[in-house]
Amino acid sequence: MHKPVVVRKAINRSRRTYEDGKRWLLPYKYPGVRLTPTRLLNYWHGRWERSRGVENVRAYPTMLTIEATNVCNLRCPACFTGASQAGRDKSMLSPTMLDRVLNELGSRLLQIEFYNWGEPLLNKDLCPMIRNAADRGISTIISSNMSVPMDDARAEEIVRSGLNILGVSVDGATQEVYEQYRVRGNLALLFENVRKVNAAKKKLNSKTPQLVYEYHLFKHNLHEVDEARRIANELGMSLRISKGWVAGPDWDTEREFDFEHDPQPGRCSFLWDHAVIHNDGGVAPCCAVFYKEDDYGTIAPAAVTNGGRAPLPVVDVVNVAQASPPVNGRTAAMSSAEPGVPLSTFHDQKFHDVWNNDNFRRSRRMFAAKPNEPRDTSLVCYDCPVTDLWRKQRTHVASGGAGNVAYPLAYNDGFNYFFSRRPERATSEGLIPLAEVKEKTIVV
Ligand SMILES: C[S@@+](CC[C@H](N)C(=O)[O-])C[C@H]1O[C@@H](n2cnc3c(N)ncnc32)[C@H](O)[C@@H]1O
Ligand code: SF4
What we know:
Layout: H1 5-25, H2 37-52, E1 63-66, H3 95-105, E2 111-113, H4 126-135, E3 139-144, H5 152-160, E4 165-169, H6 175-181, H7 187-203, E5 210-217, H8 225-234, E6 238-243, H9 269-272, E7 274-277, E8 282-284, E9 297-298, E10 317-318, H10 351-355, H11 358-365, H12 385-398, H13 413-419, E11 422-423
Parallel strand pairs: 1-2, 1-7, 2-3, 3-4, 4-5, 5-6
Antiparallel strand pairs: 7-8, 8-9, 10-11
Helix pairs in contact: 3-4, 5-7
């Protein structure tokens, strides 16, 4: 029996208020993080700047998503990479680039996610890079399809790296159901790899990494949750069930499942607190950004960007939403009315300079206290549901409204916004062929 929506929302809201209050004082205790005075001071500074909507920030992000590689062996249909989209050149994050980032950000970071739109375990240098972060007292996490070749030595290397959390994307309990989303995935290989990591933990007497059975719920795998729970128990994994994104309308329109979805207006955490760096050094405003055209800058030396070739031209983007009906009356509108700033302008910059460049400042300005933002329509943040909700709330308050604006945001809208936003050249043309990155890749 499910609780009525109003009761659920009220419970969620009070829980959030409590958590928010607690979070003002102390950051979430990420496993493995070393809470130093520098980290705490930066955390408080950042929270203060976000609460004031400061545009030109002095604090550093406390979270970092850094893409170990954008290469993947699977073809999950609701993932850009799985859908064979080419956001940028295929490449591996290099230990040198990571070291540069950590020398600048490491003393303030609380956690690093070493994955975004590719399969992190395909990067041969992943473990030394995790070790580098762990040695600096930063909590580390990856999510992996684990359907990759792995011998005992590699399993031990993962354990020795100090990785805190290893999420495994499973989405099923039998091969037949699992492969409907994890196209090309091999469930027996995945479970065998989990056993190898468990054996390595035992051998090395290590409690880490914690293993998580990540189960994205879709219509087609609902009936295997109980079996997944049983397997997770057997393998010493915790089970985390979350709603799977699908392109188009939500499949759970009756809200049969009790996933928290009660969007609250607020300043986007990514713009103040959570940095996103791609495998090629591109700096994006959030982890949902996939295409290079939507990056806000880059920290890569010019020679690294675009495989050493001339920088990609900033091309116009098409409004693909026009071709498909809007969701909930909203479209993933994208305008090329304002030309982007060529990324070549930003080469080789320090992260913090990119973090405060014109694109970031303009996006933060969209979250100003008064609804007076300029029409920065070319930026990916402009039409994002988070910005849109903030804008609607400001208008609501300015016109005398009390409380939060009613906002019929479907669970899937955020995903649809990003997934339908594509540059004109959204084909694999002009990008480095996969074969050229094989040398640095675990061969699959
Ligand atoms: C794009 S993947 C990259 C990491 C890795 N290749 C993996 O699949 O775990 C990043 C995260 O997105 C999740 N993901 C992929 N497709 C999803 C979907 N349709 N709904 C929800 N999460 C999804 C993955 O399970 C993973 O946790
Ligand atoms: S395994 Fe991960 S990166 Fe690969 S296609 Fe699936 S979701 Fe995308």
